[in-house]
């Protein structure tokens, strides 16, 4: 939800994270270039936009195999970066999508998450219905990483295999089941396309 709710108006590029924040018009790098993102060394994920753009340091962050998909997404990322201009002395501005003034508040986050994203085109009908308490409780557990997944059951010695039941290719974690897994990404893609939402 954080990734979909916060965008960055770029200033000096010191606070915005190059690989994980939504500072490009196309969105977060991991959204429009997922293969390239997976080829990035984990130690580079916290690098700022300013550090990554300096002498094109972001190119050296790519440590994974240069597959065809990675190379295509590398080219897709290169072009928008040529138009990025940093403003020294101007701080990056983080904008919260769910309030009129762009400032985060707990109440706006609660309303967006539980009472509906009715400001999104086409989503009004979907989110008008009240959310059952069990759905809210599950969402609360998921946000805290407390849902009972295969990796947790394996850690407690309750099962041998921790592979995802949906894709059988990755470790089954809460993040994998709900957001980053291949099956979850396909579900979210179809749902968001249905409501003409682009993140």
Structure description:
The chain has a two-stranded antiparallel ribbon with strand order 1-2. Helix 10 (174-180) packs parallel to helix 11 (182-194). It is globular and about 50 Å long. With 199 residues, it is mainly alpha-helical. Helix content is 42%, strand content 4%. It has helices at residues 2-5, 29-32, 34-38, 49-53, 68-81, 106-114, 124-128, 133-143, 150-155, 174-180, 182-194; strands at 6-9, 93-96.
What topology does this entry show?
Elements (H helix, E strand, L loop, with lengths): L1 H4 E4 L19 H4 L1 H5 L10 H5 L14 H14 L11 E4 L9 H9 L9 H5 L4 H11 L6 H6 L18 H7 L1 H13 L5
Antiparallel strand pairs: 1-2
Helix pairs in contact: 10-11
Q: What is the first-to-last residue Cα distance?
A: 11 Å
Q: How would you classify the quaternary structure?
A: single chain
| Shape annotation | globular
Could you report the average pLDDT, rounded to the nearest whole number? 80
Q: What count of helical segments does DSSP give?
A: 11
How many structural domains can be distinguished in the coordinates?
2
The total strand number stands at: 2
Main sheet: which strands, in order across? 1-2
Report Rg.
19 Å
Q: Biggest β-sheet, characterized? A: 2 strands, antiparallel
Poorly predicted spans: 116-128
Beta-strand portion reads under 5%
Classification by helices and strands: mainly alpha
Q: Which bin fits the share of residues in helices?
A: 40-55%
Order of helices and strands: HEHHHHEHHHHHH
